[in-house]
Amino acid sequence: MTTLTIDNVHKRYGSTVALDGVSFEVRPGELFGFVGSNGAGKTTTMRIALGVLSADSGEVRIDGKPVDLDVRRTIGYMPEERGLYPKMKVGAQLTYLAELHGLSSSDAKDATATWTHRLGIAERLNDTVDALSLGNQQRVQLAAALIHDPAVLVLDEPFSGLDPVAVDVMSDVLFEKAKTGVPVIFSSHQLDLVQRLCDRVGIIGAGKMRAVGTVDELRGQGGSRLEVVAPHAQPGWASSLAGVSVLGHESGRTVLELGDGADDQAVLAAALATGPVHEFTLTKPSLTELFREVVA
Ligand SMILES: Nc1ncnc2c1ncn2[C@@H]1O[C@H](COP(=O)(O)OP(=O)(O)OP(=O)(O)O)[C@@H](O)[C@H]1O
């Protein structure tokens, strides 16, 4: 069981502060979604986690050990800029990468066959990478990250540009790896996907962690929402209720945020006082809504 720990990492590029004391951990067997606006610091964090970029201060540890060359070999990494040789055939390339990670020639061939089959690219073994669609290149890139049976997976935007079937293939594989105890961290701008897949999420903004927690914990921090459909309700029907803010009112549908001291039953009574109530639904903000609040 492996844990990836990012501990108070700072990084500057010249006068740009890219990371300003970033700390979080990715626990054994969890899918950790790493989200943040463009330029927030995700790629920098992941490159430092892998050890291809050094931090100015702070430390990355895997099971308590700083990431040196040996520890680095146990990580499967999918870089954002992708790192395949375009003119090399898929099969030869994956086998070569597996051998670089220390697999014997026959184990490297077996692993290539296993992962290309699993990722639906077995028919493309003899194609050069540049002859593949971008989505298939991405599947090869994931195969390259998995080929040496890594103890940790660090994936920079693995889902970007994939069609829905490829998203399913990719997420099944990540779930499968996580189930074996591997900590999996991936960055993404597809927040609905992150909300659906991840055990925990970290939101980074301008080089600082703004929130870390399970999806439910984070959504719980955003306060509860109520959607009320009461066709005869006039605008303002809920505005004097304690702890209630009106987020919107249109065609008899009112969206309310319940803050401290709000009583949903008092809201229901007030809604019923306007006439029939057709819907009364308690919801939590989505990760996308929460993200907007946290990074704003
Ligand atoms: N090689 C570099 N030289 C100078 N500045 C850099 C370099 N790499 C990143 N930066 C800066 O560091 C900050 C963090 O960038 P980073 O690429 O880590 O963000 P990101 O969250 O991965 O963004 P995106 O979602 O756009 O991929 C940004 O301000 C970026 O401009």
TrEMBL record:
Main location: membrane
SMART domains: AAA
Lineage: superkingdom: Bacteria
BP GO terms, sorted: response to antibiotic
Protein family per UniProt: Belongs to the ABC transporter superfamily.
Pfam families: ABC_tran, DrrA1-3_C
Domain ABC transporter: start-end pairs: 4-231
InterPro entries: AAA+_ATPase, ABC_transporter-like_ATP-bd, ABC_transporter-like_CS, ABC_transporter_ATP-binding, DrrA1/2-like_C, P-loop_NTPase
Gene3D superfamilies in the cross-refs: P-loop containing nucleotide triphosphate hydrolases
Subcellular location as annotated: Cell membrane
GO MF term list: ATP binding; ATP hydrolysis activity
Topology of the protein relative to the lipid bilayer: Peripheral membrane protein
Protein name: ABC transporter ATP-binding protein
Tagged with keyword ATP-binding: yes
Keywords, in A-Z order: Antibiotic resistance, ATP-binding, Nucleotide-binding, Transport
GO cellular component: plasma membrane
